[in-house]
Amino acid sequence: MKKLILAIAMIGMGSFAMAQQITTPQDKQARRAEMQQKMQEREQEHMAQMQKDLNLNQTQVNQIKALNEKRKVEMKATFDQNKENREAQMDQMKAKRAQMDADMKNILTPQQYDKWQADRKAKMEQRKQGMKDGKMMRKPMNTGAAEVK
């Protein structure tokens, strides 16, 4: 009986330990490096497939690679440029959300407000779970690289 209880306790502790994923800056850097490696591999595979499908010569391959690099640099510049704007928009959204929360607190009774908060939180969890399950995934972007003549 003691062994059974001990085994159950060990399984329980193991599951709790696995559920807590602590991310350190090193973990984030490792994941980022891994993602970049995968992106490069995908790009190479895509280029090889295009070369095969479209019967491209080496000059065309080099031109397409240069075009893709130019596009990446432009997209990064645009992303960096709009970063401040996104942060300002997020601040505005947080302020609006806080104002709505305060207004709802004035309108609703304490019990109604608590129920409203719980419902809102439950809906947010459903959205998060839907995104994790892939139900709300966007369609893949078309890079336009296949349209080369």
Task: Describe the protein in words.
Helix content is 82%, strand content 0%. By secondary structure, the protein is mainly α. The longest helix has 50 residues.
What is this entry, summarized?
With 149 residues, the chain is mainly alpha-helical.
Keywords:
about 150 residues, mainly alpha, disordered C terminus
Mean pLDDT across residues: 80
Unreliable segments (pLDDT under 50, ≥5 consecutive)?
Answer: 141-149
> How helix-rich are the residues, as a percent range?
over 70%
- Quickly count the helices: 4
Given the C-alpha coordinates, what overall shape results?
Answer: flat
N-to-C terminal Cα separation, in Å? 74 Å
Q: List SSEs in N-to-C order.
A: HHHH
Question: Total strand count, please?
Answer: 0
Class derived from helix and strand content: mainly alpha
Please describe the biggest sheet, giving its number of strands, its sense, and whether it closes into a barrel: none
Radius of gyration: 25 Å
Strand content is: under 5%
